[in-house]
Every structure is written in structure tokens, then in C-alpha cells.
């Protein structure tokens, strides 16, 4: 719960990252800082397959930060209906991307764990699919466990927590992303940071 004005004005996502970054080894910190000077093309997501099909709630898709390696993603909400008709959010999609991965374009290694996300939940446009950075391989309905997940998004401008459709939350969700549209470069950069921190994410048993 929000206890005081300080808590309301503090960006919990930024604070969490600053604390985590400070605890990283110096060589890892340096590699992450070097991302600022890199051409985004050096760490851009790989194109899997372009499609004009719109994402649907329950879709399972793949994301490829390296050739031949795909992380699984899940469309939690498709074509968001914002309560205030926010033109930036309306029609967009709320997605999760997991640490579980595969080498093949199928569900063979799909073992979703919402405590093991490679990045925070994000709100994205259909352009990810049209450009081929996200590629849908299946659709499995959102189950009862998923419907009860405590997730949401923090609005930096308002200092408040919201669901993707604009409903305000009166507590800090356990699974928290930033309220706004994630850019393709932004997602690629955040995934790349995680791969720098933990190179084992690219390994298979």
C-alpha cells in the first residue's frame, strides 16, 4: 500500500533498477553503460516472420534476441479498451515475455513462470508482429491462475498504478511494468541488459 507522499512520488521501477545495478559487478555495469553508445542495430531483435494477423488475447509468441534462440511471450490483453479512450493505449496489447526459451518455432519448451520474466510487462503496438519481431505460434486461453495475477503498470507522470485499461490500482502490484507504449528499441535494449547480466539465459541444458 502507498503509505506516504514520498512513496507516491518515488518511481518504484527506477528505484528497483538503481539498487540492482549498484549490486552488479563493475565489469557488468560497464557493459550496460556501453549500451548507451551502441547503435541499436547491434542489439535489435531479430526478425522471425512478418505477419498482418492482429494479436489476440491468449496468444503465445516468440521473441529472438539472437539468431536461432527464441524467448516465449504471452498476450495478456489484446486491443485494449481504455476507460478514458486514451489514444496512446487504446487498441494496444499488454504482453509478458518469459525467460523460458526454445530453438524451434513451437511450444516444446513453453513453461511460463510469471516470477521468471526476462523484462517487466509491457504495452505494445501491433507493429511488433507486422515487422516480424514478435511471431505468434499458438493461442491458449488465459486460465484462472493468470486471471488472478497481481500485475499492473506505474505511470511516471501521475505517480500512480494502473491496469492496462486505465483503471487505477490502490496498491503496488507484485508484477509491475511502466505505463506507456514500449518502443521496439526499448524492449530490445532491456532484453540485452538482462543477457549481459546473465549470459546463461542464452544457454540450453
Which key features would you list for this structure?
205 residues, alpha+beta, four-stranded mixed beta sheet, 6 helices, globular, disordered N terminus
What's this entry about, in short?
It is built from six helices and nine strands; from the N terminus they run αααββββαβαββββα. The chain is an alpha+beta fold. The longest helix has 14 residues, at 184-197.
How is this structure best described in words?
The protein is an alpha+beta fold and 205 residues long. Helices cover 23% and strands 24% of the residues. The protein contains six helices and nine strands, in the order H-H-H-E-E-E-E-H-E-H-E-E-E-E-H. The strands form two sheets. It has a five-stranded antiparallel β-sheet. Strand 7 and strand 8 form a beta hairpin. The N terminus is likely disordered.
Write the layout of secondary structure elements.
Layout lengths: L4 H5 L2 H11 L3 H9 L24 E8 L2 E9 L15 E10 L19 E3 L2 H4 L3 E6 L4 H4 L3 E5 L4 E3 L5 E2 L5 E4 L5 H14 L8
Parallel strand pairs: 6-9
Antiparallel strand pairs: 1-2, 1-5, 2-3, 3-4, 6-7, 7-8
